[in-house]
Amino acid sequence: MIKPKAHPHEAERLKALHATGLINTPMEQGFEQITSLTKKIFDVPIVAISLIDKDKQWFKSIIGSNLSETPREISFCGHTILKEEALIVTDAQSDIRFKNNPLVTGEKGSVRFYAGYPIHASNDHHPIGALCIIDSKPRHISPTEKSILHDLAALVDSEISNFHSLEAYKKRNVELECAERMTLLDGVTKTWNANGITQLLQQQMNLSKEEKETFGLFNVSIDSFKSFADEYGEDTGNELLHAIARNLVVHCHSEASVGYLGGKEFMIILPLNDKREILKSAERLRQIIEHEPMTTQAGEIKATITIGIVFYDPHVHQETSSLMAEAHGALEEGRHAGGNRIVLH
């Protein structure tokens, strides 16, 4: 195995990466949509958007693997950022750079095919990571497919630019230190954890009170989740949690914030002042979860969700606890009625 070298402009590259505020952030709709599209186009088991930090490779978005990060020294994408062109590995087991890599030998994965293209920070030519496609069997990539991968990487660049805007900075609270953000993320679902989403809820309440507007709060529960976990085991249960979380992020409104409360419950903050649109968003989520099977190692699993909804009223909801309690009350009402429904309080 050959470890990736440091980039010729490593200090500047790392500065550009850290300036994006992307490290240790939850799933974002735009990035998840790009990896979903890439998977459909190339029909590969794994697609990832990786960010190459000083000592680690951190995945901003990944489909087909439960990894959140790897050491930089074993990363394929660490090699990709060294040139402004695609890195194509048709069979890693016969490539001297990778054949003894734990991502290839089975210790941390079974990568045989890899194709990656560098991605860049906003208004900066330094590569900060890569969009990559991975397969567990050897394969070739055509010139046309290589060009498509380049175009998709350019979409990632555009999404990074959007994320980097001042408005997006405020929305995602990226002024927090990177290490602090990490304590507010859930490792399984890749969304905000209970503490993180509650902090965001308080911020949204303060903002809506000041602007005299409402917003929607969803308390979401996976119906029969305990039965799934008991039947398929904890690992598959975690895969289901991640798949549900990903659907909530991808298919809810782009302004929504999604957090995992623990057990089988999520919370979604939807900062819209249109009650009708809020209800439409909830029903769309319910239908998508119901009709799209979740892919896990145990096979495809169908699930349903129940959503309790409350509209913020500054005259009624003085504390986050009262707003969350009302949303939970609506959720319980939906559960007792049989689940797979939305209930508004």
UniProtKB/TrEMBL annotation:
Domain GGDEF: 213-345
Signal peptide residue numbers: none
Pfam family, one: GGDEF
InterPro entries linked to this entry: GAF, GAF-like_dom_sf, GGDEF_dom, Nucleotide_cyclase, Rev_trsase/Diguanyl_cyclase
Gene3D superfamilies per record: 3.30.450.40, 3.30.70.270
NCBIfam families, A to Z: GGDEF
Protein known as: Diguanylate cyclase
Annotated organism of origin: Legionella taurinensis
